[in-house]
Design a protein that fits this description.
The chain is mainly alpha-helical and 189 residues long. It has one domain: Orthogonal Bundle (Endonuclease III, domain 1), CATH 1.10.340.30. The relative contact order is 0.18.
Length: 189
């Protein structure tokens, strides 16, 4: 039987990425504010390196009021202009406007008695799949992420396609794509 020496799936050589891998990625998240942040940041990451977004996360948190949905939902044109001028975040009008729109959708979801936690976790795969061996084994989308994106869009969320949905599922622990032999798998026991 061949054993694989423990390693980190990603982030080796970059302390910020290593800490994100070791302490956050793939760990279950159930708090709606934290889920809203992850969904927003995954949207901002689209077309960019995750490392860029992660380095700007403190700026995002400051610019978007700690991702408090009610506060962000009240943002208007002056806030959009402020955000477009903020070098601490990714300054993309479509992504900024989508984040504000998504805060409004989240507030509406809460007012209807629902939670983002319920929506996201209702798309957890029911059939276990083998743990990926290489990064090439990790899908960019899944049938569940397609369904998640469809449901989020039906609730008024924007900039939430199947790829962003899947990345959010990974980030929040809905799916566990740590590779065989990863330190996180070993530490999880």
């Amino acid at each position: 039987m061949t054993t694989i020496a423990p390693f980190r799936c990603f982030g080796t050589g970059d302390p910020l990425m290593a800490a994100y891998h070791d302490e956050e990625w793939g760990r279950p998240v159930h708090d709606d504010t934290a889920l809203f942040e992850r969904l927003a940041l995954e949207g901002f990451q689209s077309g960019l390196s995750w490392a860029v977004v992660l380095r700007k996360r403190p700026g995002f948190r400051a610019a978007f009021a700690g991702f408090d949905a009610a506060t962000v939902a009240a943002f208007g044109d002056d806030d959009v202009a402020r955000l477009l001028a903020d070098p601490g975040i990714v300054r993309n009008r479509r992504k900024i406007e989508a984040t504000i729109s998504n805060a409004r959708a989240l507030v509406a979801l809460h007012e209807a008695g629902g939670t983002l936690d319920e929506v996201l976790w209702s798309h957890r795969p029911v059939t276990a799949r083998p743990r990926p061996v290489t990064a090439a084994d990790v899908p960019a989308t899944s049938p569940e992420s397609v369904a998640l994106a469809r449901q989020l869009r039906s609730l008024g969320f924007r900039f939430v396609g199947p790829t962003t949905g899947y990345a959010s599922m990974q980030a929040c622990g809905v799916v566990d794509d740590h590779l065989v032999g990863c330190l996180a798998v070993r530490d999880a026991g």
